[in-house]
Amino acid sequence: MIMKAEALRTVKIAVSLISLGCVLAAIAPSSAHAQRGYPPDSYPPPGYPPPGYPPPRYPSPRYPQATGYFDPRFTFSLFLGTRFGGRIAINTPHVDYLPISSSFNWGFNAGARLVPHLFAEFMWNRQTTTLSAHDIPANQIVPLTNNAHIDMYQGSLLYEIWTNSRLRPFAVGGIGFTHFNSRGILSFSDRFSYNLGGGVKYLFAPNVGLRGELRWSPSRTTSSNTTFCDPFLGCFTTPISNHAEQWQANLGVELRF
Question: Does the pLDDT at position 107 exceed 70?
Fold first, then answer.
């Protein structure tokens, strides 16, 4: 009799545990669903809550936090760098070109967003340099002035790449003009110019970053005549525009707002 009673008690305990497990298994999915911020599909039942009781409140869903590195409306950067290369063609019996000495340049970029990640920019930079003359009979470079200013005024388009990262490469290109202040050596001052290049930005804060770039920036200078020969049309002489083909490498700080 004692063994029968023990067996009956064991069966009752097992049935109770199985029933409790079934109830927990049925409740667990609905609880997990509610914890994610969404009510169960079949909840509340019709007629709930009773009159006089406030409706149940569910926690709001969670969303991933924003990184803070937004697409700004405006940018402004100051930079220092080096402008190198370039010569001005001169057609005289004793001088054939004026080399432009490589030297520091400095300036700023001011940009405004057109569409996401695409900016219109205005760039001004100044190079203070030495203009020399290549003396043909002596085959020597003769300095003419060490205080010539070459100012570039450029309107450009800049497109940022990898905009979800702090490290943002970009491509840039545009057109404008170059002002040559040669201290009376050259017979011209303003000439058409353009630029093409790229670089990278590193954002160490949402509104502040480092900006480095390399640009090819030729400026038209003088014109000359050259002879072209065509197998069908023969040889003919035509004017061409000479360019001072300069490069510039700049590094600066950019503000984004």
Answer: yes
